[in-house]
Amino acid sequence: MQFVLVIHHGTYPLPGTPGAEAVSAEDKKAAYADWAAISAMENVAGGPPLGLPADATTIRVENGSTVRTEGPFLDAASAVGGFLVVEADDLEAAVAVAARVPQARLGGAVEVRRVARYW
Question: 2-114 belongs to which homologous superfamily?
Answer without folding.
Answer: Dimeric alpha+beta barrel (3.30.70.1060)
